[in-house]
Amino acid sequence: MPWLAVPYTDEARRSRLNRLYGIQGIPTLIVLDSKGDVITRQGRVEVLNDVECREFPWHPKPVLELTDSNAVQLNEGPCLVLFVDSEDDGESEAAKQLIQPIAEKIIAKYKAKEEEAPLLFFVAGEDDMTDSLRDYTNLPEAAPLLTILDMSARAKYVMDVEEITPEIVEAFVSDFLADKLKPEPI
Q1: pLDDT per position as a tens digit, 86-103
Q2: Separation between Cα atoms, residue 11 and residue 55, nearest integer Å
Q3: Could you give the dihedral angle defined by the CA atoms of residues 50, 40, 62 and 58, in that order, rounded to the nearest 10 degrees?
């Protein structure tokens, strides 16, 4: 571990940092800028995904491809997950491009209010981890499938339509944020 770390034995400092940054478990790597503002709370995931640190300091991306290493973020709050048929290599990228402007708009709106965005945004292809997630949340095998998963509330919201358009995604997100959607239990 080549970076500075708080010794495990320094319980007072660990406790203050836990409260300040909402740390609930170890290991945790939070990356700060020179002013002490959080760049990412997902430093550990970023290191695992970018071992050569080419994208350091890992400013958050509006839309992530769901992987084994970042799936832990599904537990942090509500997440929009667009499931696609990734056997077509271009479909995952097209899905990201479809929801990216909506994600950027939501992130910018909340950043202007100095609040964290109320949703994380993911695109999920077809792999064992995605199959496990579908099984755990009892989601149909349909693709494309637009969902909002709130693991901490054990709730899901599903929009199963033939074609996903930016208007459908935006309306789905707006309805969710306005508490107009009825949750289904996970």
Answers
A1: 766 678 899 999 999 999
A2: 32
A3: -30
